Amino acid sequence: MIESLGVAFGLHVLFAVIWVGGMFFAYLCLRPAVAELSAEVRSALWGRVLGRFFGWVALAVPVMLGSGLWMAQVEGGLVNADLRVHLMFGIGILMMLLFGHVYFAPYRRLQRALAASDVQAAVKQIGTIRKLVALNLSLGIAVVLIATAGKYLLP
Fold first, then answer.
1. Are 8 and 71 in contact (CB under 8 A)?
2. Predicted TM-score (pTM) of this structure
3. Where are the domains of the chain?
């Protein structure tokens, strides 16, 4: 049982780092670096980058949900979990829902705009995605802080 808990914890943390770290990189490093590119080049770049990144997030979502639920079950279930676990679970579900919305709405519209060479529509969708990623990054950072410092700060 302890080994499966260790595997679940390792996978959970690994995919949290991939997801939150990827959003941090995209929002705070890549976005400013490509701001001076033409709208056409920037849109094409974002289309490729987001396609690759969202593939990893699509893998992270079920792995993190499954490993989180497994760890909670092994530790006595969500009913007996402390506030930190409930906060991480709730915020994590919200993050997953936001990702689903981004992927199935503005990202799909971005793909269609790029396929049609409609740069203005692509730029609009990138703006929408940027705002939602900023929100999800903020939520992800909150979860990281709850997971690491919450033990010392929350009841």
1. yes
2. 0.95
3. 2-153
